[in-house]
Amino acid sequence: MAPMVAAYHNDVHGGAGKSGIKVTCVTCHLPHDNVLNYIFTKARNGVVEGAIHFFGNPDAIDWHANRAKRDHFVVDEGCIGCHTNYKTNTNISAKGLKMHAHYESLKNTDKKIGCASCHAEVGHHGLKSMLNYYKPEYPYYNGKLDKKKEEVEKKLSETLK
Amino acid sequence: MRSKKTLFSIGFFLLLSALSLIGSETATPSPTKEVPVSAELKEKFPIKAHHAKLSLKCTDCHENQGDNPENFKMIGDEGCLSCHKTKQYLADRLKFMDALHVNPHNSIHDGPKLYCDECHFEHKKSDNMCLSCHSNDVKLWMRETP
Question: Which ipTM score applies to this complex?
Answer without folding.
Answer: 0.93
